[in-house]
Amino acid sequence: MHSLKLKLMLIITVAAAVALGAVSYLNYSNSSNILEEELSKAAAHSAEYNARIVDQWLKGLISEMADIAESEVVKSGDPEKYLPFLKQVLSKHEEFELLYASDQNGESAGTNDTVFNITDRDYFQQAMQTGEAVISDPIVSKATGNDIIVVVAPTFQAGQTEPSGLVGVCVTLHC
After folding, report:
1. 126-148 burial, b for 16+ CB within 10 Å, e for fewer?
2. Over the stretch 101-147, which tens digit does the pLDDT of each residue have?
């Protein structure tokens, strides 16, 4: 009889251990799935929030470039007049790598005291064709070799509907 009791206890203990193990595995599996779903939702929410912040920041840059493009010193097209003004703007924005103005032929002068031509840049062609502000895709800066985005706004002479040039800002991408 003693041996029968022992066998029954052993069977019950093994069955209980197997049942407990199965329940533990199912709980772990369900908990993992729930946690994964919640993390995915939180990541998506965070990405949407960050996208809204970046969108607002870019809209602010477009607005600032449009305001600068309205400046008479920038519309003059004379680097001796507009570079001091652009350098003053640059000094207030440490996130800006470079500000510059360009004529309708892409001849540009930047706040780093360089001259360069941007006619081969898609953003220049688009801004000159549409007469609207443009945000570039990430590109490599001709002036510094850094990865940047460029935000440009066209300049217009009084009474003209075609852009006479543009003003732009280069923002370094910190990845």
Report:
1. bbbeeeebbbbeebebbbeeeeb
2. 999 999 999 999 999 999 999 999 999 999 999 999 999 987 778 89
What sign does the dihedral 135-140-145-146 (CA atoms) show?
A: positive
Among 130, 173, 129, smallest CA distance to 150 is for 173
What's the CA gap between 105 and 125, in Å, rounded? 10
The answer to whether residues 81 and 56 touch, using CB atoms and an 8 Å cutoff, is: no
Tell me the pTM.
Answer: 0.77
Amino acid letter, residue 45: H
Q: Distance (Å, rounded) from C-alpha 111 to C-alpha 101?
A: 9
Q: Are 151 and 133 in contact (CB under 8 A)?
A: yes
Write down the CATH number for the domain with range 1-175: 3.30.450.20
- On the 0-12 / 13-18 / 19+ scale of CB atoms within 10 A, 164 is middle
Asked whether the beta carbons of 164 and 156 are under 8 A apart, the reply is: yes
Per the structure block, which two tokens stand in for 60?
């602010």
DSSP letter for 142, please: T
